[in-house]
Write a structure and sequence with these properties.
There is one protein chain. The protein has 134 residues and is mostly helical. Helix 2 runs antiparallel to helix 4, helix 2 crosses helix 5 and helix 5 packs across helix 6. It has one domain. Helices cover 65% and strands 0% of the residues. The protein is elongated. The structure holds iron/sulfur cluster and zinc ion.
């Protein structure tokens, strides 16, 4: 394993829910990349642009403050993405989301269930819990 791929693997989410979510996003990127960038994704993998954006999404997932309780990013009160990648990922999801039902129905169903999750902003949670040690 090269240093770059070892680093990438370390930056990917490690827990079950987050790993599943990463695989779902990856499926969406494969749909997007095949349709917009002409990639035969099964043979060639994602194009460089999509690979970089997916890596960014994977890093955000791995660092998500909600961990295994993570809501979908669209329902998140934190929005940890920078503006540009957020818009790009939103475009990928907007396009690939409806197509997921046909191509990856199981991932699509679980993602729909994830949309029911509700979380509060971490600041509100901290305020409610009070200072540590109390
Ligand atoms: S946008 Fe919200 S839910 Fe998505 S990774 Fe960032 S903090 Fe987690
Ligand atoms: Zn692409």
């Amino acid at each position: 394993m090269s240093d770059a791929s070892r680093r990438d693997a370390q930056e990917l989410p490690q827990t079950p829910h987050l790993r599943r979510e990463y695989r779902t996003i990856e499926s969406m990127f494969r749909i997007w990349c095949a349709d917009f960038h002409g990639r035969q994704v099964d043979l060639e993998g994602l194009c460089r642009e999509c690979e970089e954006l997916l890596a960014y999404a994977g890093q955000r997932l791995a660092k998500c403050p909600y961990g295994e309780d993570k809501p979908t990013c669209a329902k998140c009160p934190v929005h940890c993405y920078k503006r540009e990648p957020r818009e790009q990922v939103r475009a990928v999801m907007h396009y690939a989301g409806p197509r997921m039902l046909w191509r990856h129905p199981w991932q699509a169903m679980l993602h729909i269930l994830d949309k029911l999750r509700r979380v509060e902003h971490p600041m509100i949670l901290r305020r409610r819990r009070g200072p540590p040690g109390k």
